[in-house]
Amino acid sequence: MQALRERWRATGQRADVLLASTLPRAVETAEILNDLWGLPVERVRELSEIEPGECDGMLWTDFESQFRGADYRWDPYTAVSAGGESWVVFQERVSTAIGAVVERYEGRTIVAAVHGGVIDGSMVHFLGLPKDAGHVLQSTNASVTEWLHIEQPETAEPGGWRLLRFNDSAHLE
User: Fold this and answer.
1) Could you tell me if 119 and 76 lie in one domain?
2) Fewer CB under 10 Å: which end of the chain, C or N?
């Protein structure tokens, strides 16, 4: 994340609001980026990764044998494990949270340190994709996804969201 911070320092990237999920790796990322702006880091639980339930903390091999078995296909409507979220429930949570954040901070530049599933959720939310979409995307850790809200005059076409960057990790190379 230091590389991203230095990239943004060099380009003059600004932020009005700095958010992070409540997971430690996202909070740490936000704190590293915060050296640029001196903003309070607002932790938003709803922007955390999918809730895994009982399988939380398991080794991948144990998870596969206990919860997936030999059939690796995945149903986006079924919880990851007992007490966890399904992909669809997760995407609904993330979409609702993104909508609330955008409304709350309308007109401001928001930087959010989040997770791959939340980035997928931004695609679902801003592009109007079905809630079972998005689990095929692959986001690189410490990459940048950037959205721009376009407001059009009343006489022109309606505004909307534009995806400017997805999975941009040039600062890591």
Assistant:
1) no
2) C
